[in-house]
């Protein structure tokens, strides 16, 4: 019989730490023994909310947990991993939660390391019911099973992903989420400039996304670019030029050309 | 007392014609006296569905309607407008449904012309409950009121938009819908290449869009570009290069730079 894990320490009190903590706390099988955070305000608030303790001094981190979840910003992770090396027992499971860092960033800390990467844009204010696909990895089978059990207890979509696959998932996420959010920003800016309520565009955006539940976006491409409707394209560009919206004009021209090349293939 | 309109002819049997016809038919105040369509198959199917008649010969178009709605593709509109000139009584209301054509394309047909532009990506298979903001225009006040009544009977979001405003709405629609759909297509292609299920990305995309109900996308921008996380950007680019995905690499580089310039401002 494998030893089961149940005591958890969460290091961090930001967006990912908060939502993971709240989701884990709902499952009676697991106990979050403490939140470790330098930020007393967010740390205290999170610890209180999930009825756990707060530790603000990393040298006093609890030694009794089975798994340590490091949910901090990408840039903080390397420094923190170095520090944790001194304070976590060498056989405990430790995981990080980022898409672009290697699992090996944790290798000096313990003999049981892993990753739980949430492929979602998470805010601490996110609903507890937000759907979060989790991609996990571990450096040995036993750890992988234990991490998988934990991941499955908080998400219905769990899959294995090594360093390379996580990096690729991250690229896909940047393309479909960060880049499209930028387009929504440009659209909103344009509406502001032209005194149009951006709200009018929301049903269209929602419909564009809703369709992907059943239909590949590649066969749903519409608009003047794919129709090769040069009159409309020229008319649009002329207006963007007239309004001195050079950034939007650049993006319009670039993506129109890319769409035409893509769908000509 | 203004003369009310109630008898309607719809010219076209494509996506927009179908959804407008179905929405109008639900309102007992209006009667669709016939569907005019060259395509016997889609025309017959639509006419049957809404319990109306089909006319396939434009020279025999019903003379008794109060309003004629021309819902055809942008490129067909100019030719059709020329033909209709001969067959529609000069005082009837006639409207078209496109964002980029001027209201004046109809000016030889009647003294009462207008536009009902649906700002939505419509398929004939769309649910009847799809939300469609309608932008209307007319060349005189009486016609505007009558078109407005009709528009309000099928949509809860109706606003006035002249030629220029419709063109601008169309630009905004292209940016937020056509361009983002292209990014979703690139994301899906990338997932296929890398043997990743695109389904895993859907919750992220939905969340990105869901937030715009309450929050401006400009303050929700995340990702390596806005964080100026050059390590991750270089890593991502290296993978795209290695996998020979030059189109995706081009788009990644271009939009990353644009995001950085935009949010530096």
UniProtKB/TrEMBL annotation, chains A, B:
Residue ranges occupied by any DUF2520 domain in the UniProt entry: 132-258
Start and end residues of each Pyrroline-5-carboxylate reductase catalytic N-terminal domain: 7-97
Protein name: DUF2520 domain-containing protein
Family matches, as Pfam families: DUF2520, F420_oxidored
Lineage: Bacteria, Pseudomonadati, Bacteroidota, Chitinophagia, Chitinophagales
Superkingdom to which the source organism belongs: Bacteria
Coiled-coil stretches noted in the UniProt entry, renumbered to this chain: none
């Amino acid at each position: 019989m494998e030893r089961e894990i149940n005591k958890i320490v969460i290091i961090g009190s930001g967006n990912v730490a908060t939502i993971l903590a709240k989701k884990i706390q709902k499952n009676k099988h697991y106990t979050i023994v403490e939140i470790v955070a330098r930020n007393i305000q967010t740390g205290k608030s999170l610890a209180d909310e999930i009825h756990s303790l707060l530790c603000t001094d990393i040298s006093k981190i609890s030694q009794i947990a089975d798994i340590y979840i490091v949910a901090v910003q990408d840039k903080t992770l390397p420094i923190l991993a170095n520090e944790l090396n001194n304070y976590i027992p060498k056989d405990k499971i430790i995981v990080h939660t980022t898409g672009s860092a290697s699992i090996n960033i944790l290798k000096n800390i313990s003999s049981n390391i892993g990753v739980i990467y949430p492929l979602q844009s998470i805010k601490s204010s996110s609903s507890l019911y937000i759907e979060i696909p989790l991609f996990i990895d571990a450096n040995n089978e036993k750890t992988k099973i234990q991490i998988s059990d934990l991941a499955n207890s908080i998400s219905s979509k769990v899959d294995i992903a090594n360093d390379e696959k996580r990096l690729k998932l991250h690229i896909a996420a940047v393309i479909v989420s960060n880049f499209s959010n930028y387009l929504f920003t440009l659209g909103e800016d344009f509406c502001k400039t032209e005194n149009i309520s951006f709200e009018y565009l929301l049903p269209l955006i929602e419909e564009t996304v809703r369709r992907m539940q059943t239909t590949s976006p590649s066969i749903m491409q519409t608009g003047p670019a794919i129709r090769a409707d040069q009159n409309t394209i020229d008319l649009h560009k002329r207006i963007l030029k007239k309004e001195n919206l050079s950034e939007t004009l650049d993006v319009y021209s670039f993506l129109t050309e890319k769409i035409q090349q893509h769908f000509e293939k």
